[in-house]
Design brief:
This protein is of the alpha/beta class. About 35% of the residues lie in helices and about 15% in strands.
Length: about 280
């Protein structure tokens, strides 16, 4: 199977990991009104080792359950019990390869809603604070998804992320009707020309903000470090942060440790310059 980007392998043997002193940067991040999260792929290893590396830097880790079959196969070696003892909270990014069109036919893999609920159960020992889902092509399925989540899912919000197919303006109304929240992705909005559409959002419904800089042309959603944002991107981010409720989470979706550190330094510096840090 060709791995999705970022790749998601099994955990390496637990160890201390290449963890420098993060204290000065974490102290800067604590001055922001929002919880700051990082993805569970910043070094080429599994979830557990990435969480060790991020412990002491981010407040929260986004568990990247991006591939349905491989993540359903995770066991205690991939999600060891000691993850619950780290100084971290967690949320889950659900798979990108869910087979919404084919349903649960044997040839197409597990039913997407069954898979979503099974993955939520697999992460339950970590009490994830939220779950992020790329919505199906047919937004008419959102009430069904919301009903299944309410009936069999955890007591945590399910947030719908804007994508190339569903810009923020197209997504907001159906999400509101279904009673689901929003995860607003800055890099996606910029990559797909949805910046203006996002301006009309009710930011009180935004439970999470994904942060990265877009790439160029065919790699527009490349998730580059935040220091690669151009002037327009920084201006857009500033407007969004001024509207974002303090209950939201900022997830810096950059998939390398160096890029993550550079992004967090930029975020902390900008927040101070923009009068957003305490």
């Amino acid at each position: 199977m060709t791995p999705l980007t970022p790749p998601h392998g099994r955990a390496e043997p637990a160890g201390k990991g290449p963890c420098p002193s993060y204290r000065p940067l974490r102290e800067k991040l604590k001055k922001l009104p929002w919880r700051v999260a990082a993805p569970s792929f910043v070094i080429p290893a599994g979830v557990a080792e990435n969480c060790r590396v991020l412990d002491g830097l981010a407040s929260e880790v986004s568990l990247l359950f991006l591939e349905t079959r491989s993540c359903l196969d995770y066991g205690p070696e991939d999600l060891p019990p000691w993850l619950a003892g780290l100084d971290l909270t967690y949320h889950v990014h659900l798979p990108l390869d869910l087979r919404w069109e084919q349903g649960g036919a044997p040839a197409s893999g597990p039913d997407p809603l069954d898979a979503v609920l099974a993955l939520a159960a697999k992460a339950a020992f970590l009490s994830p604070r939220a779950f992020v889902l790329h919505p199906p092509p047919d937004l008419g399925r959102l009430p069904e998804i919301a009903a299944r989540w309410a009936a069999g899912g955890p007591d945590a919000p399910l947030l719908l992320e804007n994508t190339a197919l569903h810009g923020p303006d197209r997504l907001e109304g159906p999400a509101r009707v279904a009673g689901l929240g929003l995860c607003l992705d800055l890099g996606h909005a910029m990559a797909y020309g949805h910046e203006t559409a996002a301006e009309s959002l009710d930011f009180r419904r935004v439970g999470m903000l994904h942060l990265s800089a877009p790439g160029q042309s065919s790699r527009a959603d490349e998730h580059l470090p935040l220091d690669r944002l151009d002037r327009a991107g920084r201006t857009l981010l500033r407007r969004w942060l001024h509207r974002l409720p303090p209950t939201a989470t900022l997830c810096v979706e950059v998939f390398s440790l160096d890029g993550l550190l550079a992004s967090l330094e930029s975020l902390a510096a900008w927040a101070e310059d923009w009068g957003l840090a305490s």
